[in-house]
Write a structure and sequence with these properties.
mainly alpha, 520 residues, single chain, disordered N terminus
Length: 520
């Protein structure tokens, strides 16, 4: 640690200059690859069912093809805890290039898969690379920007994070329509090649610190424990209940391993995840706020395109286009929020974004089977997008801004794990609430099926019964949006503790002053 105490603080310009934008381009390109891939594959699941049908033409069960998403997520969760140590050990430039190569190779292999089982295996390889891209990207940008420009740089990184879930389905639907499912993976190959060459050219070489020993015990506890924990949570929607062996056994084992890791992690000098970072009050408050926001918002976000498809009868591509106003709103406020986060405390920015999202969620409780798009739904989504742009990146900025150069990689890892766990929990909770609400409406399920297959209309009582069932389905969505709105509103409590006045950089130990979050 003594090497860090003598690191001089570079003289950063206040403006976002070309040197920083060059580095930001590398990170954004990697983030686009990783995040787009998640949403592009989501839209291809029905295609996988028929593409990998057995010899008799029987489609693959949806629960099986869903593993193409789950395996990728679990692979991400397994590798993210290793990223902080690996970045310190091998250097961020070399590790980032390796992550892009792994992701690109996994993408090429996925396109060659001849069975659903092989595709799931290759998705694991993709996830090993994809899991490192985001925390490494945050580390690289934080060190390059310096604390005074963090807000504006995080706003740049936030573009793919917010737009990926919106434009991913559009891209996936278009590729499947004009080509084949293979191209949702093959499109990553040329992008990956460009990303590796760009990273080699643009990223400055950094000095790795191989003196730190690897925490093998921590890895054996944390990585499989986190994967089992998330597997149990991800199984809740399919089981329809928490009280199921498929949920409880992996959830319980995973939780026990994670708790054991937490207890153990304070013993080694260099643990896999440095939980001592929680001594930083600003980081802790930001992580709690991010967790609550991620669970509430990403769970609720899942409902909107589903409503368009199930109740309004839109195809996947049209439903994706209807989500675009939300992305437009985020694009408008994100640069503004990023610039403000460099000048005023984030505690004076984030609550306004949360209020817009909360208001939008409460408005969506009123959706029906004939709610006008331009007169209601699209303006509401636009307002929620405005809130998105003013919320996520300022929270991340607050979390990373006061970390020292040596702590950035570990802090980025904590932030990404928090977001991963929060979104998994949020999606599981909202999915179960929605499934139960829908099951309580006797005509809702049959009406949704009849809307997709007109031959079923007469079987459930004719057009009048279908309309009544769709109204019940809309009520189920509205009731679930209410739960999501309440969850987002609780985030305001945590956001109240975000810094509302300028503070000096916090240090997490009693060592000498260290230059905050800078390039070596």
């Amino acid at each position: 640690m003594s090497a860090h105490t003598t690191t001089p603080q570079p003289d950063y310009p206040d403006a976002i200059d070309g040197a920083v934008l060059k580095i930001a381009g590398v990170v954004v390109l990697g983030a686009i690859m990783s995040i787009l891939d998640i949403t592009v594959v989501n839209i291809a699941l029905p295609t996988f069912q028929t593409a990998f049908a057995d010899a008799s033409g029987q489609p693959v069960p949806y629960s099986t093809v869903a593993w193409t998403v789950t395996a990728y997520t679990l692979s991400l969760a397994t590798v993210i805890p290793l990223t902080g140590w690996a970045a310190d050990r091998f250097g961020t430039k070399r590790l980032y290039m390796l992550a892009v190569v792994l992701f690109t190779a996994g993408s090429a292999l996925c396109a060659t898969a001849g069975s659903i089982e092989v595709l799931i295996l290759f998705r694991v390889i993709q996830g090993l690379g994809g899991g490192m891209l985001m925390p490494l990207g945050m580390t690289i940008m934080t060190r390059a920007a310096g604390p005074a420009r963090m807000g504006r740089l995080m706003a740049i990184l936030g573009v793919p994070m917010l737009l990926g879930p919106i434009f991913g389905p559009i891209l996936g639907g278009w590729l499947i329509e004009v080509a084949t499912w293979h191209w949702i993976f093959l499109i990553n190959v040329p992008i990956g090649v460009v990303a590796v060459l760009y990273a080699w050219w643009a990223l400055p070489s950094d000095a790795p610190e191989p003196s730190e020993s690897f925490d093998f015990v921590g890895m054996l506890l944390m990585s499989p424990g986190l994967a089992l924990f998330l597997y149990g949570i991800s199984s809740i929607p399919g089981e329809g209940t928490f009280v199921s062996k498929k949920v409880l056994i992996p959830f319980g084992i995973g939780l026990a391993m994670v708790v054991a890791f937490v207890i153990y992690s304070f013993r080694p000098k260099h643990p896999l995840l440095d939980l001592r970072l929680f001594r930083n009050r600003r980081l802790t408050v930001a992580l709690v706020t991010m967790f609550l926001f991620g669970a509430a918002f990403f769970g609720g976000l899942l409902l909107v395109p589903t409503y368009f498809q199930e109740v309004r009868g839109e195809n996947t591509l049209h439903a994706a286009f209807l989500m675009v106003p939300q992305g437009v709103g985020a694009m408008l406020t994100m640069p503004v929020a990023g610039a403000l986060a460099d000048r005023i405390p984030v505690g004076r920015i984030v609550p306004f974004g949360l209020l817009l999202i909360t208001g939008g969620m409460f408005a969506l409780t009123q959706v029906g089977p004939d709610t006008p798009y331009w007169g209601f739904t699209i303006p509401v989504l636009f307002v929620m997008g405005l809130g998105m742009g003013g919320t996520m990146m300022p929270i991340m900025t607050s979390a990373l801004k006061t970390l020292t150069a040596h702590q950035v990689a570990r802090g980025s890892t904590l932030l990404n794990i928090t977001q991963q766990i929060a979104s998994s929990i949020g999606v599981a909770v909202i999915s179960v609430v929605f499934t139960n609400n829908l099951a309580s409406k006797p005509l809702a399920g049959p009406a949704i099926a009849a809307q997709k297959d007109p031959a079923l209309v007469d079987k459930i009582g004719g057009p009048a019964a279908v309309q009544q069932g769709l109204a019940q389905a809309a009520d189920a969505f509205g009731e679930t949006f209410l739960v999501a709105a309440i969850l987002v509103a609780t985030t305001l409590i945590a956001a109240w503790f975000l810094p509302r006045r300028h503070e000096e950089s916090h240090l997490l130990d009693d060592e000498a002053q260290v230059a905050p979050a800078v390039l070596h």
